[in-house]
């Protein structure tokens, strides 16, 4: 008797009885085979030249744009993304492919003078080969794209292992991308940990986005093999609100960053640090803002906070606020779907999980600080360092915050959420490992520098 083959299943978090995908997991051998087939396709993709790669990526962008309505609906259904956010993600995905469609024409090296005598010294960046991409479910089109597009632009081929919860989105993305590319250049490998481990063990460069625990294991395995790796992991992001801030605006921005997409973003705000006299008015304004967040069916254009991705995620959020007094929320609605009300708590005891762990839901803790220096110490006190928002009308205070905050990204008078795909993305400490993603940083990550010495024949 043989063991049953594991199934990859993806369900609608609004209606868990609605199953989008149920397929057998391919297994480790299939993952290794996918990498080898991709590797065989890579030389032709590279040697086809910059014009061919640019045209192909541009064609992908055009095809994604044409399918925008379909892709938006699929993201709403499979991962519970609110309609407005799903539309924005698809538009960003199109922009990402258009941006990187120009990258094949970028300079890939430089010419240098020799120290003495005739000849030339050249530096040239070359692709690694097969890019193994492991992506989460919360941005099912944008994150695979901002990894795959720069990898492809620089002459690599791609094997994408999406999160099981976003399998249908990944498969549809692959169908669109593959029509514009030669066979074997872009492959989707559905699966879970087994397939992910196999991909990390075989690829020539690895890019991961997901949990801190898994990301550390991925970084360790790739590093032991000596292949380049980047891992974008968790966040425990803070919003610092100073007394001179526009409190209503700060509350609106922070509520959006707490509750948008049910807090299922690595850039979501989970700690709100009120400085001095800002505490009382912010408590009132933020509580009211969170109570006013539209929660419900993500297919409704007015919805801001939809369901959590699955029951485990919803239970994790509910367990995190258990026993704490809620200023807003703290309830789980009856009925189908994995919903949780946007929640704000305060007076959390030292050592509580909300002060040291990422919960990944619409939940934040309000913390008082005596002054800006105290607020910065609180913000920096956690293992993570992805993004911090600072709300103030004082430019000097903002600049001091920029200098002292131990995070990879700082946003002034703006929500902690939001990504500029043409700029480097990443954090410090347990939030990120390796080089930055996106923008020109991605082009460097997916290539390695070679140094060439050209000397005339017969030179001594």
Strand order of the largest sheet: 12-13-14-11-10-16-17
Q: How far is the N terminus from the C terminus? A: 72 Å
User: How much of the polypeptide forms β-strand, as a percent range?
Assistant: 15-25%
Overall geometric form? globular
State Rg. Answer: 23 Å
Q: Report the uncertain regions.
A: none
Number of strands: 20
The helix count comes to 14
Task: Please bin the fraction of helical residues.
Answer: 25-40%
Question: What's the main sheet like?
Answer: 7 strands, mixed
Task: Look at the structure and give the mean pLDDT.
Answer: 96
Structural class, by secondary structure, is alpha/beta
Produce a short descriptive summary.
By secondary structure, the chain is of the alpha/beta class. The chain is built from 14 helices and 20 strands.
Question: What would you note in describing this structure?
Answer:
The structure is a single chain. The chain is of the alpha/beta class and 460 residues long. Helices cover 39% and strands 21% of the residues. It is built from 14 helices and 20 strands. Strands 12-13-14-11-10-16-17 form a 7-stranded mixed sheet, sandwiched between helices. A 6-stranded mixed sheet has the order 7-6-5-8-9-19, with helices on both faces. A hairpin with a 7-residue loop joins strand 1 (7-11) and strand 2 (19-24). It is globular. The termini are far apart. 51% of the residues are buried. The mean pLDDT is 96.
């Amino acid at each position: 008797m043989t063991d049953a083959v594991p199934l990859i299943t993806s369900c609608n978090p609004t209606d868990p009885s609605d199953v989008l995908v149920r397929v057998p997991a391919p297994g480790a051998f299939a993952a290794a085979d996918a990498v080898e087939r991709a590797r065989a396709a890579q030389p032709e993709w590279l040697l086809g030249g910059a014009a061919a790669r640019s045209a192909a990526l541009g064609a992908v962008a055009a095809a994604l744009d044409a399918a925008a309505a379909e892709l938006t609906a699929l993201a709403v259904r499979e991962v519970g993304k609110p309609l407005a956010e799903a539309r924005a993600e698809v538009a960003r995905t199109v922009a990402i492919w258009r941006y990187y469609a120009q990258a094949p024409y970028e300079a890939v090296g430089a010419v240098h003078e020799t120290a003495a005598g005739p000849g030339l010294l050249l530096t040239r960046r070359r692709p690694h080969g097969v890019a193994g991409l492991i992506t989460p479910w919360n941005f099912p089109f944008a994150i695979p794209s901002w990894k795959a597009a720069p990898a492809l632009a620089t002459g690599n081929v791609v094997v994408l292992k999406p999160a099981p919860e976003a399998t249908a989105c990944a498969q549809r993305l692959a169908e669109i991308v593959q029509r514009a590319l030669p066979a074997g250049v872009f492959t989707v490998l559905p699966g879970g940990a087994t397939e992910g481990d196999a991909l990390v063990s075989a690829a020539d460069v690895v890019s991961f986005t997901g949990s801190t625990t898994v990301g550390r294991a991925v970084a360790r395995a790739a590093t032991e093999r000596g292949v380049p790796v980047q891992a974008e992991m968790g966040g425990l992001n803070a919003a610092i609100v100073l007394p001179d801030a526009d409190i209503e605006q700060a509350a609106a921005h922070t509520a959006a960053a707490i509750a948008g997409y049910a807090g299922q973003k690595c850039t979501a705000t989970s700690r709100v640090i009120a400085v001095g006299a800002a505490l009382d008015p912010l408590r009132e304004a933020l509580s009211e803002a969170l109570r006013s967040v539209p929660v419900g069916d993500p297919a409704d254009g007015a919805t801001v906070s939809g369901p959590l991705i699955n029951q485990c995620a919803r239970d994790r959020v509910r367990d995190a606020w258990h026993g704490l007094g809620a200023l807003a929320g703290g309830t789980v609605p009856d009925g189908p779907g994995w919903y949780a009300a946007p929640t704000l708590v305060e007076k959390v005891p030292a050592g509580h999980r909300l002060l040291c762990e990422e919960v990944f839901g619409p939940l934040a803790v309000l913390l008082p600080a005596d002054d800006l220096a105290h607020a910065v110490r609180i913000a920096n006190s956690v293992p993570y360092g992805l993004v911090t928002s600072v709300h103030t009308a004082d430019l000097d205070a903002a600049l001091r915050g920029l200098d002292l905050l131990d995070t990879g990204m700082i946003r002034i008078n703006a929500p902690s959420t939001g990504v500029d795909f043409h700029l480097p993305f990443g954090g410090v400490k347990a939030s990120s490992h390796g080089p930055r993603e996106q923008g020109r940083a991605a082009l460097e990550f997916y290539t390695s520098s070679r140094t060439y010495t050209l000397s005339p024949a017969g030179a001594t």
